[in-house]
Amino acid sequence: EDQVTQSPEALRLQEGESSSLNCSYTVSGLRGLFWYRQDPGKGPEFLFTLYSAGEEKEKERLKATLTKKESFLHITAPKPEDSATYLCAVQANSNTGKLIFGQGTTLQVKP
Amino acid sequence: DAGVTQSPTHLIKTRGQQVTLRCSPISGHKSVSWYQQVLGQGPQFIFQYYEKEERGRGNFPDRFSARQFPNYSSELNVNALLLGDSALYLCASSGDRGRGQPQHFGDGTRLSIL
Q1: For residues A64 and A47, is the Cβ–Cβ distance under 8 A?
Q2: Distances from the Cα of A20 to the Cαs of A12, A75, B33, in angstroms?
Q3: How close, in Å, is residue B105 to chain A by CA atoms?
Q4: Which of A30, B23, B28, B34 has the least CB density, counted as fewest CB within 10 Å?
Q5: Could you report the per-residue pLDDT of B65-96, keeping only the tens digit for each?
């Protein structure tokens, strides 16, 4: 069964304190792995797509990496405005565009 | 450019009623997907439509149905509402059939069942 597990469930950081979020997945043929950011009361906002092991993508303080079993979202010197829930999702090689999401990691960055 | 728009933003219904949620995709996007997000969890896939045809269905009862119109907008219908249907309903659009391109989400419809 295709599955995504994110850890930790919640993370509290001080401003400037770098850390990583983990996304472990099992999928019958990976078409793509997606990272989203979700603010309270809003829909998920697309951040990155990763397609193959070894791939890396960067955007401002965020860097996403991918292996055959997991993905990491590294946050360098976070700011309070980075506080949000970060969602990881996988899409399998199937006939649909179905995304399978993890439960998310809620990040709080304190000034 | 306008993103994915959903209406209404909030809705309150009672058990047994029926509800229709609406979604307009990003201009040029032909694929629309629907997800249900319960508080504290990640979104769960309900349906995908591409070129007005159903391309995927998640593990939801037949009370849930959807359709896509010629202008690629979509409606999600839920009949015989249950308390457990209370959730944020998200619509997402993508440029292809969803094969590897990112899906872009609207801000959802918050459905509360009393």
Answers
A1: yes
A2: 12, 6, 30
A3: 6
A4: B28
A5: 999 999 999 999 999 999 999 999 999 999 87
